[in-house]
Amino acid sequence: MSKIILLDSIRSMQNVWAIFRNADWAWFEKVILTWTTPTPPRNDISKTALWAETFIDWEYYKNPFEILENLREKGYIIISVELDERSIDYTELYKQKNPNVVLVMWNEVSGVNKTILDISDEIVIIPMRWQKESLNVSVAAWIVMYSVN
Q1: Residue 125 φ then ψ, to 5°
Q2: Which among 1, 27, 52, 70 would be 20 to 30 A from 99, CA to CA?
Q3: CATH number for 88
Q4: pTM for the model
C-alpha cells in the first residue's frame, strides 16, 4: 500500500509543515506540492514540521494534472477532500485491501481545482455541526489521513 498527499496551492507555510508531520505520523510516503504551495527548505518554520520535510519524500510540480494522471495510470485512487455535490462522508470511503491512495487537499480560499475534482475517484467531506463549512486544512488532512490507514 502506498499513500501520497497532494497539496493544491496551500497558502500557509505552517499548514504545509503541519501536514508534513501528519504524513510522517500516518505513514504517507510522499508529499506532493503544487502551484503556489510553499516548498522546503524554510529554516524559519521547520520547527513546525519538526524537520519532517528532511525525511518525508516530497516533490514539487507547477501543474498537478500530469502527476495525478501518471499516478492514476500506476493504479492510485485519487481522493479529493472538498465540499461538492458528489461528496460523501469521509467515513464512508470504500476501503480496498491495500489501495494505493493519493489524497488531495485544497486551497482554503478557492477549494480543490475543478479539473482535479473531475478526475477524482472519490470526493469526501468532513461533516460540520455548526456555522463553518470547513476545518483548517492541516486538521482536515489529519482526519482523512487517519481514515485511509
Answers
A1: -125, 160
A2: 52
A3: 3.40.1280.10
A4: 0.90
DSSP codes of every residue in the chain:
--EEEEEES---HHHHHHHHHHHHHTT--EEEEETT---S--TTTHHHHTTGGGTSEEEEES-HHHHHHHHHHTTEEEEEE---TT-EEGGG----SS-EEEEEE--TTT-S-HHHHHH-SEEEE---SSS-S---HHHHHHHHHHHT-
Q: Count structural domains, the chain.
A: 1
**pLDDT of 137 higher than 70:** yes
Per-residue pLDDT tens over the stretch 58-89: 999 999 999 999 999 999 999 999 989 999 99
Burial 117-126 (b: 16+ CB within 10 A, else e): beebebbbbb
What torsion, rounded to 10 degrees, do the Cα atoms 70, 74, 75, 81 define?
Answer: -30
